[in-house]
Amino acid sequence: MDQSKFNKITGLNFKYLKNDSLAAIVAFLVALPLCLGIALASGTPLFSGIISGVVGGILVSMLSGSQLAVSGPAAGLAVIVLNAIEDIGFFEGFLVTVVLAGFIQLAMGFLKAGTIGNFFPSSVIKGMLAAIGILLIRKQIPYALGYNTDYLGRLDFWQTNEENIFSILNSLLVEINLTALIITIASMVLLIGWSYLKNNTIKSIPAPLLVVLVGVGLNQLFVVLGNGMALSQDHLVTIPILGADAEFSELLTFPDWSVISNPQVYTIAVTIAIVASLETLLSVEAVDKLDPQKRRTPLNRELKAQGMGNIVAGLIGGLPMTAVIVRGSVNINAGAKTKLSALVHGVLLLLSVLVFPQIINMIPYASLAAILLVTGYKLANISIFRQVYRAGKGQFIPFIVTIVAIVFTDLLIGIIIGLVVGILNILLNNMRNTYSFNKKDYLEGDPVRLMLSEEVTFLNKGIMIKTLDTLPADSTVIIDASNSTYIDYDVLEAITTFKNEGAKYKNIKVELVGIEKFYEKYN
């Protein structure tokens, strides 16, 4: 079989093998601690996060039509998973809901429900990306400063205790780990400086990979010097070591189907399927916007791929997964060109447990924090705010509201709030655009010509009534529907009422142009 036929069958392209392989390493280094941290926050075995990362990386990337998206366990589902396990009572029972959610997603894909992602305004998608950038920066601060006792929840704005984000940040500044700070600063300087290099040969080496090597090297230097500055293991990546911590068979967990008669199982499965699908669709659309080649992901195919991924993950003990914008953006920034990068990243996640866990456990969290800090800045760059602001209030208001809502609540709620604001903004604009009236060409005493918009809905009724009621007595008004393709019955009724009653009372002459066809439609 020649290379082109193989590429067509598998969907893989080895043309950019170097770029994709190096990007895969960076994506893997970022995904590994995220998989572990999300599993911890979900109240599940740590290896369940790795399983989802492996399945998402290998199986989903093969089935997906996206070239740059990376799938795995999602932080947005952590609370749902934690509560679901509490409701069902045990992890094995929860795995049944993951399998069922996968089948629901598969059905959604065949029913072509993926198009729902097309109904989200661009301003909301851009707001989501910027908010994720802010969250990335915020959540990496403990790692950058060497204070990382709680991976996911510590920097949420609203705390269950009496602290808030500002008091917590103040405590972090007091508890800075000097070695972690040195590694973070060195990594940031390397990452930023690398982009200014002129030599393309040297620049082809991904800076994030060098950052990890520098971090490991600095910490090992402190270990050799024995000066007490070496980082302890809680500041380093930690994954299970086969033979020492566990056997491979002990890492897999299988669903307990005895819960299949529990109604809660189906409620949870539907919830996971809807939330995971929505987050996936928004994430792949955001990744498509970041793709330098501007390729479009087939959304229904993506739902099918995610469904198969969740079915397999649930059957062997994995967390529910989605396409994850953080990993996708890291993948793109590291130079990925095709889906081969996501696949190799999945293989590396598997090998990290089977072959070289000791090496992975030498990587400082501070090195990974530096990579994510730069990624976060690229997503929430001030130039993006300027660009959306220049596009006008209609774009800027939903953009800002989405950012604030996500930062102060969570990803799903924030997106919904942003979408609602975007829809309200569209409705308000629609209400204002009932008609056009050229004041510059109008001379006092001339007829007032109201050119109706192309589509006039019931939302325009209020502004139409208000306009007609404020027309001066003894005047002439021409209501011109020549350019209109649709006029709602309520608006026609308002115009008729004015012509037959209000206009006569104020001695206003009303002329209707091109509106007869709409009267005929309703009679």
From TrEMBL:
SLC26A/SulP transporter domain boundaries: 17-401
Parts of the chain that traverse the membrane: 21-40, 46-63, 91-111, 118-137, 176-197, 209-230, 265-287, 308-326, 338-356, 363-384, 396-428
Pfam families membership: Sulfate_transp
Subcellular location per the Swiss-Prot or TrEMBL entry: Membrane
Keyword set includes Glycosyltransferase: no
Keyword Membrane: yes
Signal peptide (from-to): none
Highest taxon above the source species: Bacteria
UniProt-listed InterPro entries: SLC26A/SulP_dom (IPR011547), SLC26A/SulP_fam (IPR001902)
Keywords of this entry: Membrane, Transmembrane, Transmembrane helix
Membrane topology: Multi-pass membrane protein
Protein's name according to its UniProt entry: Sulfate permease
Organism: Marivirga lumbricoides
Lineage of the organism: Bacteria, Pseudomonadati, Bacteroidota, Cytophagia, Cytophagales
